[in-house]
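Input structure tokens:
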């Protein structure tokens, strides 16, 4: 299980059990990603197909257990038990989680049980305000699937975040717009080191080499600008960039590479 330490904060990637997805590319796209040689072998195949991952990220600070994007996307109710077992293998019981951070809403992952109640009963559930508001008014692309969140927002435990909040010592949210109505990233900063969990700001590491790639995102121009700003800062301070949808090991330190960037895994 990949684990990283940032100062006195421990980060563990929990892979989605049995998840296996390779997305073939047309010849031109395959040739383009093969030019970014660093993507191979972790993130692309020999033929330039994209290898995709699925994960949840567990963060332990000295006093708080946080869970970020718990297997968001690729929802499948039959996988709930296996996914909770995988968290247990990382020594996280549902009762242990203090804060669940959702960078945005892309299906619901294992946030909720089949009856719509919270899977992590003690936790605060944090979502970008624009996501909750657009789900409530029906304009979010997944307003129907995510409607249970509006009840949990009215009654707790869901909370609307602005993307400026300090979550606990060494952890803060930052607004990262472009992919969805609302989208935040999670920064971890401790002991002079830093890491950022990027949610779906990057669906695949190829978008680090080619930040203009879009996949039907809400605002591709703004998204590319958000990516470039984040990558430039990461490269400056040698931050670890963690992508929940990246194939294992799912993270790397950002380095400048020609006109763009690459991950050092
Ligand atoms: Zn998404």
């Amino acid at each position: 299980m990949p684990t990283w330490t940032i100062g006195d904060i421990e980060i563990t990637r929990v892979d989605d059990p049995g998840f296996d997805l390779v997305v073939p590319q047309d010849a031109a796209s395959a040739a383009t990603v093969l030019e970014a040689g660093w993507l191979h072998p972790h993130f692309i195949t020999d033929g330039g197909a994209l290898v995709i991952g699925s994960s949840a990220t567990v963060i332990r600070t000295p006093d708080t257990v946080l869970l970020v994007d718990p297997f968001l996307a690729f929802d499948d109710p039959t996988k709930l038990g296996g996914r909770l077992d995988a968290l247990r293998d990382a020594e996280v019981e549902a009762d242990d989680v203090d804060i669940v951070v959702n960078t945005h809403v892309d299906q619901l992952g294992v946030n909720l049980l089949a009856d719509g109640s919270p899977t992590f009963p003690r936790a605060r559930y944090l979502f970008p305000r624009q996501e909750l508001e657009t789900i409530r008014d029906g304009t979010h692309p997944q307003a129907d699937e995510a409607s249970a969140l509006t009840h949990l927002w009215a009654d707790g435990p869901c909370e609307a975040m602005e993307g400026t909040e300090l979550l606990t010592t060494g952890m803060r949210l930052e607004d990262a717009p472009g992919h969805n109505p609302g989208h935040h990233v999670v920064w971890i900063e401790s002991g002079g080191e830093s890491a950022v969990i990027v949610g779906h700001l990057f669906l695949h590491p190829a978008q680090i080499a080619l930040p203009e790639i879009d996949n039907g995102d809400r605002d591709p121009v703004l998204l590319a600008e958000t990516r470039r700003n984040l990558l430039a800062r990461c490269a400056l301070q040698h931050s670890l960039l963690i992508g929940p949808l990246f194939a294992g090991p799912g993270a790397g330190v950002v380095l400048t590479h020609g006109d763009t960037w690459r991950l050092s895994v």
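Residues 104, 106, 179-180, 200 surround zinc ion (CB under 6 Å). The CA atoms of residues 112 and 118 lie 5 Å apart.
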